[in-house]
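Friendly challenge for the regulars: who can give me the structure tokens for this chain first? No prize, just bragging rights.
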Amino acid sequence: MRRRIGDILVIVIIAGIAIITFSRCAKQVSPQGGPRDTIPPGVVKSEPPNYSVNFESEEVEIEFDEFIQFNELQQQFLSSPPFEEDPEIQLKGKGFQIEFIEPLRDSTTYTLNFGNAIQDFREGNPLRNFKYVFSTGPELDSMEVQGHVIGALDLKPRENILVMLYEDLKDSVPYNQIPDYVSRTNEDGSFNISNIRNDTFKIFALGDENSNYLYDNIQEPIAFRDSFVLF
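First reply, four minutes later:
Bragging rights claimed.
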């Protein structure tokens, strides 16, 4: 049974500064040649296939129907559970290859989320929210939790905040270990963590300034929900 998490209040406000730049240039006219391509790249095949079980491979190859490029891959890519050392991801032909650096956990469902980083090469049309999912066990975990992160004082949504689930239920857990599952908030503060196993978890929201999945800097905004997430 799926359960939804309500708003999590971020205790420390994140200050944002909007910088707007203006430039003037000569007017450019695009050559006439039909309508602009607005179709994102499509997946032709994945090896091993997406949503595989009993996954044992050390690498993955994903092929598209056209040449692609990455846009801000380092900022967009997020694995749940997270890796201590992210896999190597390299363009290859009309696609890319993922090579895992560290051993995968036993009987675990992984969700590799590429956000909007994958784009076609010519027009930059993004393939939005592409995910590659696999399980090292005999089945895919299917639970999910979703909600919003907002500022405690101004009640405004917070973007790019990590939302983290821990099997260890102690309040000190974000100091000492990386989460069991993780997601990142969107512009409207919303988040979704999917492919979670049946268990009990503690949930935290963290403005992870140094990208290490730990609360090790008092300047990082953090919050937690006082009730557990139950599946």
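Residues 73-76 form the longest helix (4 residues). The first strand starts at residue 8 and ends at 10. Your move, everyone else.
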